[in-house]
Structures are given as C-alpha cells and as structure tokens.
Fold each of these.
Amino acid sequence: MDYKLHNGSGGLCCKGCSRQDNKLNTYDWLADIPGNAEEGEMVEVQFKNTRKGFFRNSNKIDLNKGDIVAVESTPGHDIGVVTLTGRLVPLQMKKANLKPDIEIKRVYRKAKPVDMEKYEEAKSREHDTMIRSRQIALNLNLNMKIGDVEYQGDGNKAIFYYIADERVDFRQLIKVLAETFKVRIEMKQIGARQEAGRIGGIGPCGRELCCATWMTSFISVSTSAARYQDISLNPQKLAGQCAKLKCCLNYEVDCYVEAQKRLPSREIELETKDGSFFFFKADILSNKITYSTDKVIPANLVTITGRRAFEIINLNKKGIKPDFLLESDQKAAPKKPIDLLEQESLTRFDKRKTGGNKEGGGSNRNKKKRKPNPAGSPEQGNRPPRNERNDRSNRSNHNSHNNRRPNRNDNQQKTDRNQQSE
C-alpha cells in the first residue's frame, strides 16, 4: 500500500505547521502519519490567547490542525481552533495534570459562516468592555486590575481576567457588569506572569516570552537562584516584563548547584609562605577560583583551579604551607590577550613588513632561497676568517680598478710620447 502525503514537496509534518496562534503552540510532528487522527477521539482546542481545552470528538468529524470548530460550553457553544489531534493529545492532557474523572465536553461541528459572524461580533466588543469594566471597578473602590476580557463564541458569556494582590469581594461588581453588558459574567483571577503570557512580547534574549509560547505552569522564582549563579542582584536586570523575577533563572540552577560541589567553601582561607589568600570570585562552570591577599579590595589576584585549591587546603590541615599558590607549571609568562576586533579591522591588509618587495607588499616569497652546499664543498664553519675575507674583497676591487677601460685622455698622452721619441 502506497501512502501519499498531502504536501507537494514530499516532506513530513506539513500539517504540523499549519495555521495557529504562536502562543502555546504545539508542533504536531505526527500530523502526516496515516491514521494518526483516528487513533483517539480527543482533540485540543485553543481559544483567545493562552486558553486551551480538551474536547471529545464523539461525532467522528474529520479534524485537522487549524480547523475552526464549535464546541460545547456552559451555556451555549464556543468557537476555537484545533491545535492538536491524534496520539499527542493524551500526552498533553497528562502534562496539564487533568484528573481522570473530569467531565469532557464534546465537539459539535466545524464552524459555519453564521457561527463566524456571531464570533466576530462578540470579539469586536471585548476592548470596549474591558475599558468600561475598569471604570466600574474604580467607582466601586476595588483594589483590582482587569487585564483582559474574553467573550464566548456565541456572545452569551464573558470572562473577566483580573489581577489582585489581596482577596477581593466582587459580588457587587458582578451585578453591575451583568446589568451593563447583558451577558453572563465569569471572574477569573490570574497572576502577573499569566498576564504577561496573555499579552505577549519579546524578552531580553530576543525571542518571544516563554510564558506566551510554551510555559503552562509557573514555578516560584527566588533570589537564591541568582545567588547560585553569581548574578548581580540588580532588580532592573532580574525582573521580566511582568515585574517579577525572570522564569529563566530557574533553568540552569541545577547545573550550577552540581558544579558548585566541585569548589571549596568561600569561607576557607588559603595559607602559603607568601601570606594568606582570601576568596574573591569564582567561575563556577570553568571550575576556577580567584583569590586576593586582602579581604575587602582586590589585591594581588591569583586564579587557580578547584583541584589546586583542595590540594592547598589539605596541606594546610597537615600544617604545611606551600611556597606559592600556583603550581610550578602554571607560573609561566602570562599569555598575550587576543584582540578579536583586530581580525575585523579595515586596515589589517595595509600593514607592511620591513624587507618586502618594491611594491610594499611586505612579502618574502620573491626572495631567492640560498642553495644548499653541494657535496665536497666546504661547510659554513670552514669559511676563512672575517679579516681575510675583507682583504680578498679589497684586492679584487683594486684589480678591477686597474683593469678598467682606458679613457680618451690616456690615449692622447700615449700618442704625444710616441711623437717625442721619433
């Protein structure tokens, strides 16, 4: 049996990249596997921003990622986009910690044009409703902030997402909102991180916020995570767009804690014959420690490895003080720092070396190489002394001067002498 893919290029998982909001996007890498959608009747549906739900496809509708469907709600129905089908849906349900006895609602049908008209009409009222509800909460002197409003697909219910530091009695607020907007009201409290995920944005790393793309559960972040990684406790740098500590501080804490075990305690002083050395700073991942001869200010800084530090500590416990903090093979001349910007300099090809050719290229490739001495010739060590070589050169110059070509005056003097003799 031959399987034919839906895309013309022949690549796999073309339907896994179909239309979907970037927020909490799940890549369906099994989308093009034949029979994947029929493996189970559960589907994942995404609504506005980061709100998702799992529904049962009891009517056996042929659903693919990106289809707009009408699902069961209380009351009426809601409109959402299918984001996952097939074998990956149970894994996502397990990740979301859904209880097995929870009531699973059904998928009614694919959205019709009439459903889409009601849906667009309800969505167009969300912004005005949010502004009006904020004014009502302010008039009731409630210490809360309404961050977002989401209408149901049929327009019969509205969900108000709010943030509050303390417990808020919003019973009177619900009555006023119901009378004002003529819909069923549902209040849902969210945190600052969830609000940032619903709004979205770009983080300092240049990518979209983690809370808006893949994070569903938010673990508390403390300043101890920054201390383990030797990060400066600067609130402006540690805080994210939600004004809370960045969630990414927890990503590498376990790695730093494991690497910290290979370094000695910061309270231990190292004793040598040169004096005492105190901890100054540590590069945890490269397993290097820098010590100073002063507790307060950096003075005579020396960087050693964690293995060398443990060796000195063991020697100090035995009452032995080494001569130097560094090992004998580490006391070489310091390496010349490499200037990375010099590699990109615009004038790096203009530099000339002495002894180059006439064109200033500074290259020695055109120079003639000295031929090796043939067999039987005297070696360089058997050459005559320097003074003897100079005398030979002088005699050769004198002979060449005597053997020079006679000029016109010399010929005239010879003819005159011949005439006198005659």
Amino acid sequence: MEKRYKENNGCAGICCKGCGKMDAPLNTFDWLACVPGNEEYTDIVEVQFKNTRKGYYRNSNNIPLQKGDIVAVEATPGHDIGKVTMTGRLVLLQLKKTRLTPESEFKRIYRKARPVDMEKFEEAKAREHDTMIRSRQIAKDLDLDMKIGDVEYQGDGQKAIFYYIADNRVDFRQLIKVLADVFKIKIEMKQIGARQEAGRIGGIGPCGRGLCCATFTTNFVSVSTSAARFQDISLNPQKLAGQCAKLKCCLNYEVDAYVEASRNLPPRDVELETKDGTYYFFKCDIMRGEVTYSTDKHIPANLVTITGRRAFAVIEMNKRGERPEALQTGGVQEPKRTADLLEQENIDRFDNASRGGKKRRKGGQNRPEQRRNSGRRDKGEKNNAPKGE
C-alpha cells in the first residue's frame, strides 16, 4: 500500500482544514477550506517551499489535494518538493497580489510525494548546512565581499539556491563556476537584505516575543531615526538596533499615532510668560497630552505640568500682551498620577499576610494562658495599688 505524506495542522488533524501553524510570515489561514466543493473551484494550487518562498502550480491531473499535502511539482530542471498551503477560491485572490491571472502559464503538479521522493528530499536537505559552510570558504578564497546566509536544495537535489548578502555589487560569475564544479549541481544566486536574513534565522526580540520579520512581516519598510524622535525615544544605537544591526521595524508601528497626538501640543521652543516668571519647556507626555515646564532652561526647577489646551491658552494670552497669575488654573498643581502599575499596589501584600500568619501561629499555643495570667496580674496590681494614686 502506497504511503501518503501529509503534514498535520498542529492539532493531530482534529481542527479545521484551513488552520495551521501561524509562526512564519508565509503561513496563511484558508478560511474557505471547509466549504463543500472549494477545492474544485479552480485547478491552481499554492505551494510553499521551506517556509521561504511560495509558488502557484496548476493541478492539471485533477489530483485530490487539500492543505498540508506534500506534493512533487515541476521545476527546472527535475522536480521540487513542497507543501500545499491553499486551494480553492482564495488562491484567485492571492494571485491578484502577485499580478497574475488564472490564464497565465503555471508549472504543473506531478503527483503526491512518494517515499522515494521524500528520501531524496531528506538527503538533499541534510546537505544544506555543509554546503553553506563550504561555499562561504570558497567565496572567501575568491576575495568576494559577500556573505552566504543560507542554502536551499531542490527536492531532487539537482539544483541549489544560494542566498547571499552584499552591500555593493558583486561579480560572482567565477564563484558560480567553482560551486558548480565542486557540488555538481545547478547554481542559482539570490540576494537578500539584512532584515530578510534575520527573518530566515529567527530569534527572540527584547520584547520577549519572536522577531516580527520571522513571524508576520513580509514587506520591509525603511526605518529612520525620525520615528524615534517623534516618540521621544532616546537615540541610543544599541537600543534602537535589532538583531539585524538595522533600526527596529517596530519603531514604525506607533509613530503615526504619536505624530497625530503631538499636534495637540505646543511647540517646544515657545516660552510661557506669567506674573510669576518665565517658563521653559522641559518634557512632555504625548499620549496624555501634558506638558511640563520649568523656570530654568537647563535644570528642572519649579516644575509645573499642564495640559496642551492650557498651554495654547497661555500662548494666546501672551500674544495679546497678557500674563496669567500662574500656569495652572486656580494656581493649584494637579495631583501626580502614577505611571507605574507596581506603584498602585504592593506586590508583597500577600507575602506580608502569610508572614504575619506564621508569627501568630508560632505564639498561638501559649496565648490563652498568657491572657489569663496577664488578667490576674492586672487585677492584683489594681487591688494592691495605693489609694493616693
């Protein structure tokens, strides 16, 4: 009996057919997989390879396929091994992102993977690490300013894709000849960036979660230091740089909200005049809409925190030549609100209660007798006390 290869969806096959592992940027959720007749809607199937690239293939042989099936697809040369990640109507929607149409030319799906195909695939996959180490040494011997970050073998082992990183243009024609002569395979070179390499390697970020580039980010947008300035983040290169030695992609996540909120705050170079004196900008809380002013330009002195609306009102008064009595309305500073959740509650309150209970238990054995003795002692002392006292 022929053995069929299929990858489980992460829950022993008891979940929806469209579900799967969502731990990589190329993983998708086929929310129409359970609709009857969805697979027969189109003969185009989405196939994923090593979680780094995807392709669309035509199921011309009408093989019954669903998400998770391991298939052998047409390649140049030979065949490749991939996993079916989407079938049916959603494939047509995915084609629009790549600007393809159902009438375009697609390579074919040969068959579902056989044991012989999987053996070749596993053998080729086991050679990837050694090939990468050897190719790095060859590139170093040829004095090429490039770094080979990863190697991906084709399913039948006849071709390999070498992913490399280079700051400048590299002439690797001689490298291709040497690699083809050493490994006896067809060579394909593909350049990637530092962020793409970090996404391929993966890791844990300072936030404690997986790297964004390795989990869900597919389009890398340029990040500049202005995003950190808008959010009042210290321009420390060691803290702003990620594992790829570039600025963190998450700096762009909330910058739009900070830019919008900063419009409700006055300019930082504007001085506020009051009858008490001149106040200079010290710091601001953008999301709260509060500004703190100091009576000295360089050091915090007589700090006063007001809202952005009140600051604009004082600026308008100064333009008319008027000076308010104080920055705050009524001359009373607002009570300080805690910014740390740990300040609101004592995290040791449970430990203190348990410690107190232990102390009471230790002295609780002789407590009734002590009370009786103390009561007798008090009565005796009261009776024997002189009358003049």
Amino acid sequence: MERKYKENNGCAGICCHGCGKMDAPLNTFDWLAGIPGNEDYTDIVEVQFKNTHKGYYKNSNNIPLKKGDIVAVEAMPGHDIGTVTMTGRLVLMQLKKTRLTPESEFKRIYRKARPVDMEKYAEAKAREHDTMIRSRQIAKDLNLDMKIGDVEYQGDGQKAIFYYIADNRVDFRQLIKVLADVFKIKIEMKQIGARQEAGRIGGIGPCGRELCCATFTTNFVSVSTTAARFQDISLNPQKLAGQCAKLKCCLNYEVDAYVEASRNLPNRDVELETQDGTYYFFKCDIMRGEVTYSTDKHIPANLVTISGKRAFAVIEMNKRGERPESLQLNGEKECKRVVDLLEQENINRFDNAQRSGKKHRKNNGNRSNNRDRKHDRRDKNKENAPKGE
C-alpha cells in the first residue's frame, strides 16, 4: 500500500523534524525523525546537557517527545534539565558507542520542563562562571596542583560537577569540604583530559571550521607521530599540535588510506641497480603511486620518477641478477599533473583587466567629448559667418 506524505517546504515533512537547533555541540541529525512509528520503536531517549554532557533516559510515562523538547529527568539528588536530541531507532545505534544495551538500567524522564523549572535552571546556570572563578582561588589557596576548567550546575541547583585537569593524582578531599561549605551544594569532582577541555570550551581550528571535539567527536583515540610519518607530514610540533597542545585528532582521519596506498610502493631502503648506476630513494607521492630516485644518497642528483609497479619490476630483475638500461621504460611518458589555476597566472590579473577597462572607457569618453566640442565650434562658425561668403 502506497503512503502519501503531505508536502512541507518541499521535503514531504519528514526531514524537518530531525534538524532542530544547531546551537549545541555534538548535535546530530536524526534522519529517521518524522517516519511514522519511529518514536514508538523504543522508549529510550537521548538527552543533552551542557556542552558535551549527554545521557540516555527511559520515557516510562510515554510522554510525546520530539527533538528540541526541554525535559526534567531523574538525578541524584533532585532532578536535572536537559534537551532531547534524539528519539527512535537511531538511539539504539548511539547506545552501541557507549557500550550500553536496551536492557541496561536507565534513569527516568519525569516531565516536560515547566516555567518554574526553567526559572530555577536559569538561576543555576547564572552561577556557574562565578563558582568556577572562586573555586580556582580556593584550590590555589590549598596548594593543589590542578586546574578547574568548567562547572556544571544541576537543573534544580542542588548539585554541581567540577571538571578539572591534573597531571598527577590529586587529593581533593579537603577541597570538597571547603566547596560544600561555601556553596551549600553537593559537590562532584570529575577529571578530564586536555582534549575534553577543548571540547567543552570550543573554538575555531586552523582549518577554519569549529573544533572536531566540540562538534561530533565523542571518543578520543590516541594520536601519535606515526600517523604524521605515514602521511609524509613535516614533524613540526607547532603545526601538528591543536589548541589543546596535543596532537591534532584529524591526523588519524586519513592515515588508513595512506597506509593502504603505501603498500603499492617499495621499501625506502631498497636500492635499484641499472646499467647507468645505482639509484637511491629520494621521495614518493603516496596517493599518485609514484617514487622518485636519485643517484646520490644525500642530495638530489639525476632524479627519475617512476611508478610503484615499475619499481617492483626493477627490484625483481635485480634479484635475478639483471640490470635494466634505465629505470624508465622505453617510450614511457610522465603522467600529466593537475595544475592549480592560481599557479598559471597571477590572481591580480582580474584587477589589472578591470583597471585597463576603466582607462579604456575613460579614454573613449574623452575622445567623444572632444569630437562633440569640435562639431559645436564648426556650427557656431557657420552661423557667425557673413552671408555671401
């Protein structure tokens, strides 16, 4: 049986429900939202709190929820306020990332947030910055080697989570007592790393986009300089480090493709023997599958670029005791490289053409004005000339 969906802004009203406001980190697009029966598939709902803090709760009261609804959820003690970010089938796929199952124990969703709940929530959030500044001073007075990077109040204001960074283990028992006496709330300390702190603060990366850790990255995989070596990236600490002073997470994005492509190239320590002499590895283009060899180990001399397939063929010939006349095959042509348009001409050529066009139009205008003046003078002379001449 064919179902007909009512048109809504040209998208049949299906994808609009999954968009929501893109004003929060780790915001996901629920592409199944709006499909009939999607919300009833599971009673587990994904709820997001401040920054990268997310949780999964059970909608045991069967409250009709959709993405963007503000709800009051169970907390210890009291309740917390969060925003629904996902419902339906995709929630079960998100549970796999956190190693949870639908049979696990989840806290409950009490209700949709009321105006009274939102007033308490606004009051609690307004205290976060001042609490963070004052707690840093308290930790400094106690001579604790730690940095409190963020404070997150619970929706009802009864509890606060203090996120801190420390290189070594910190005994913060005295700190908890002092904070509880000063702020009159329940204190929870949570240690995070430099990457998690950058994700909570946010920012713009050198690529011009918002930080990956503040948008979609939830699991932080260790990054090493080996990933940079596989991609032939210069091992410059200033360029490889991100805003968290750690190696950039994006170094791991393409390393698998480079490792797979490098298998089609020979080992860099292998020397190629020809009748002209011995060739040593100089450089390679992994994505193009080309290797450049030099007749000198230390400086570029008599550079020859061949394909990885040809290099393996020469290596097999050397194993049999044979030496080809040259590395390149007879009649082998160099592949055409893609040339950037900016390398062909100066980008200011458009400005020069525009200026010359303006000068040309200006000169034409001056010439036409001079012609008009000459015609006017001739007409006046004819009118003033005496009759009979």
Amino acid sequence: MFVGCVKEIKNQEYRVGLIPSFVKSFVDKGHTVYIEKNAGLGSGFTDEEYVQYGAVILETAKEVWDQSDLIIKVKEPLKSEYAYFRPGLMLFTYLHLAADEELTKALLESKVNSLAYETLDVNGSLPLLKPMSEIAGRLSIQEAAKYMEKPFGGKGLLLSGLPGVKKAKVMIIGAGVAGKNAAKIAIGMGADVTILDRNISRLEQLENEFGFQIKTRYSTHSTIMELLPETDVVIGAVLIPGAKAPKLILKEDLKKMQTGSILVDIAVDQGGCFETTHPTTHLDPIFTVDGVIHYCVANMPGAVPLTSTLGLNNATLEYSLLLANYGLEEAIKQNKYLLSALNTYHGKLTNQPVAEAFGMVYEAY
C-alpha cells in the first residue's frame, strides 16, 4: 500500500503524523511511505532521517495526497485540503466532526473513508486520544499559571500561594484523563484543587489516588455556581466521545467570577464546554469576556510537538499498520475496535453522535 504523511498546515501546528523510525515498520511490510518535504521539521525530524528509514520524500502535499491510499495526519483537514479528497481514500487523523459540519459534508461528498483517532473506543477507553488528553490536561495548569500573572492580565496570584498567603483555587470540571492530569499538575504546583464529575466511581478513584490533596463534588450547574465566586481557575475537561461538548458555564455565569480569573477550555475541539468559548491559536491564545480570561487554543499539544508527536505515534502505530497491511474492511475484521473510529464510509455518515449534532442521517457500517 502507498502510505502518505503530509505537513500540518493548521496555524502553529508542529506535530507530524508519522515519525522517521516508525516508517521502517511500514517499509518492512512492503509498503511505500511518502513524506511531504519538511513535514517533520516542527517536531525536530529532518527529511534525511525519514529517508534513512526508507521513506520517499515528495515536494508537495498534493503529490502525497494524490499518490497515497492511506493518509496519516494529526489534525483535521482544513478547507484548502478538501480538494485532495477522493473516493476510497483512507484518512486517519483527529477529525472532531461534531464541531465541523463543513468538513463532515466534504468527507461525505467526496466519499473519503475517514477514521478519527478521538472516537476509537476500546472497552470504554480512548487510547488514541489519551496521550493528547494527558498533555492538554497538564498544559492547562501550566498555561493558567502563566496567565494568572499580572503582566498577562491575571490577578497576580501564585497558584501555590505562600506560607500565610492563600493558594489559588482551581476547579476542574471532568474527571477523565485530561481532568486527572490537570489535577496532578495543579496539586504539584500547590493549588487548592476541586474536581467535579457525575461519575461517583471515578471521583472515588481519584480520591483514593490523591487522598486529601483534592476535594471532589458531584457536578451540577448549581454546584458550579456555588464554587465560581471563589474560584481562580476553571479547567473545562468534559468529553462526550464524538459529540459536541455540553455548555457548562454560560455567559451570564461569568458575572459570578472575579476579574482576572481564568477559564481554560480543553474541550474546544469539540465545540467547547463554555458558552463564551471560541477557538484561539498559540500566537493569540487568550481573550477576555466580562473580565474573565479565556484560554481556548484548539491544538494545545501542538505547543510541545516533540513530546506530543512521540506520544501520538506510540498510540496510533498499531492501528495504522493494520489499515496498511489489510485495507479498511479486512482491518476491521482483524480488530473490531477500528470500527468505532470510522466516521465516514463511501459517502455514509457512520458516527451517530456526529449525525445527531447536525441532524444528518446515520448509517451503520
């Protein structure tokens, strides 16, 4: 099979879908791997390294898209890339279709067989989303701490406080992978941490793991409203796989927050869990609404591309090789979990939450 990897063109996106050493795994199975020129530079990988492991370097993205049966990416295709779509092409990447009706329609009209990293479900876990959720969770506290500084418009509050001086209060909504990792870093930085979730078993797990370093609360809008006035940082880490994120904090709720408080929306790729969320970039990461600073970067792990690229590749290689070795239909027979990643197939929308988000017709594979 002809396997292709192109350079990401999303603003400030430095990750790459395939690292040089993993190219050899495809070449050893008889596949040809095309890499767009300079695709890996943002993550620190040169074309020479790709060639060393058997890749063929092509000058343009168009050449890679046109000559490949399987495209391995990181981020969802942008509008300028829709022209490369064609029937039967396999696309394996993060898609977040429930927040992007235009892309959904483009994939359906072009009859691309698209598989989304974020919807691949293995017995209730999301192994291809997990490493990026871990990174986003950890980065969320790191970024919140920075924007809490006065030169960035924040309160001028140190997360850890000092002896005799109060700690910053951090509320994490969502106790999944991202939320847990946000808590881990917030605790490490000495903050006063409260985690909200509707899964009591999950809250119990985190209490057992972190002990008295955290507080836990059952997540309701009234609970959030109770905590908001004294909260300095809110981390939105709620995920409904494949679906739009629920709006947990409304614009009118911001009036309860103190000026210079921080909202970090990890769920921005899925539409965001704050009503006032809109996607931002690493070059222009924040905006302020009613005195509350919003950090809503849509590709947070792109800020640490070497770490995130390696973590992502470690997670995706097994499934990418299955697609290359067997083709889509046989790969799904070999590993039933791949079916949960399939979002569009020969012009049919095979992801039910996406169909519900846009009022489209869902058709099972």
